[in-house]
């Protein structure tokens, strides 16, 4: 039996593999931090429109600055359009409506980053209140699935495939040393398995699903801890061999790679972006 060699690659420039020309993205948690960084990176890679979904009725000043900057990219390989939608990822009906609205308006859906997440308070695991545990799960697990559904339904509708990225965390792999946040560890570990599960179900439709696990990153997320005890920056930095926390822009490359054709055989994977935190 002879083995048929695959056809030669269709693109000749590596940058074309990473390009997101004319693609449409939905990003939850897109009003700040890693979600907003990812939105800008996708716009820079040529996306036609990136819809940032988040809780506040109106986008932050930071988001507006990024939108204005991205708009200047119009005509330079992309459209540079960032759109803001106020929605709560815990509301499944609303998230489906958001997906449908984007599909109706743009006639396609290519990329999803389910990035909205909450940490919750540090509480003794034997005393953890049920309602609070539920609140974290509703955002970090249910909300991630509702977001993936919102985009995935539109990818199915337009039969064009797509890339869905679920935001996990180093907390899905190891427990945070010295922090009583069982709710967060549990919710992020669920995201890993959700990504694998969706990846297996949706692959026949050309929809890839992967997760990203950042280590400690300097966003608004760890701010409640750092405001009270600034020494945490040093403690968390010491938890990886690079001896520093990650900067928000250090998520950009991985997000564009996963969103693009450059990762076309990457499915059901988790990509760690943690300075080596997991290696210790
Ligand atoms: N910063 C870190 O150290 C770190 C590390 C690992 C993973 N993460 C994960 O990355 C993601 C983004 O975090 P970040 O660091 O950019 O923090 P961030 O606080 O800047 O961003 C989180 C965003 O999610 C939004 N959000 C929260 N609940 C929501 C809801 N119910 N509906 C819609 N939006 C909601 C917030 O308003 C916020 O804009 C989170 O899922 C977080 O768990 C962060």
CATH class: Alpha Beta
Strand order of the largest sheet: 3-2-1-4-5-6-7
**How do the SSEs run, as a string of H and E?**
HEHEHEHEHEHEHHHE
Total number of domains: 1
What ligands are attached or bound here? Answer: nicotinamide-adenine-dinucleotide
Strand content: 5-15%
Provide the residue-averaged pLDDT.
Answer: 95
Q: Segments where pLDDT lies below 50 for 5+ residues?
A: none
The H-level CATH homologous superfamily, spelled out, is NAD(P)-binding Rossmann-like Domain
Fill in the CATH topology.
Rossmann fold
What would you say the CATH architecture is?
3-Layer(aba) Sandwich
Helix content: 40-55%
Write down the Rg. 19 Å
How many DSSP helices?
9
Please report the total strand number as a whole number. Answer: 7
GO molecular function: oxidoreductase activity, acting on NAD(P)H, oxygen as acceptor; oxidoreductase activity, acting on the CH-OH group of donors, NAD or NADP as acceptor
Keywords: Oxidoreductase
Organism: Trametes cubensis
Family: Belongs to the short-chain dehydrogenases/reductases (SDR) family.
């Amino acid at each position: 039996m002879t083995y048929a060699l695959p056809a030669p690659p269709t693109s000749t420039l590596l940058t074309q593999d990473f390009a997101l020309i004319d693609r449409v993205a939905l990003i939850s948690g897109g009003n700040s931090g890693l979600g907003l960084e990812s939105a800008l990176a996708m716009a820079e890679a040529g996306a036609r429109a990136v819809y940032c979904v988040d809780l506040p009725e109106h986008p932050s000043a930071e988001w507006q600055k990024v939108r204005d900057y991205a708009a200047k990219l119009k005509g330079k390989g992309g459209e540079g359009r960032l759109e803001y939608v106020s929605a709560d990822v815990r509301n499944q009906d609303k998230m489906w409506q958001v997906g449908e609205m984007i599909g109706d308006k743009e006639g396609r859906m290519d990329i999803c980053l389910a990035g909205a997440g909450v940490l919750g308070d540090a509480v003794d695991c034997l005393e953890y209140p049920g309602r609070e545990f539920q609140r974290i799960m509703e955002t970090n697990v249910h909300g991630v699935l509702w977001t993936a559904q919102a985009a995935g339904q539109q990818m199915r509708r337009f039969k064009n495939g797509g890339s869905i990225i679920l935001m996990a965390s180093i907390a899905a792999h190891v427990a945070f040393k010295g922090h009583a946040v069982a709710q967060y560890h549990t919710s992020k570990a669920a995201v890993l398995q959700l990504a694998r599960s969706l990846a297996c179900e949706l692959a026949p439709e050309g929809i890839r699903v992967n997760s990203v696990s950042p280590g400690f990153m300097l966003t608004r997320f760890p701010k409640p801890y750092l405001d009270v005890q600034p020494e945490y920056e040093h403690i968390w930095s010491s938890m990886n061999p690079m001896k520093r926390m990650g900067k928000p822009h250090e998520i950009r490359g991985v997000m564009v790679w996963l969103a693009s054709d450059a990762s076309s055989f990457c499915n059901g994977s988790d990509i760690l972006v943690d300075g080596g935190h997991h290696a210790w």
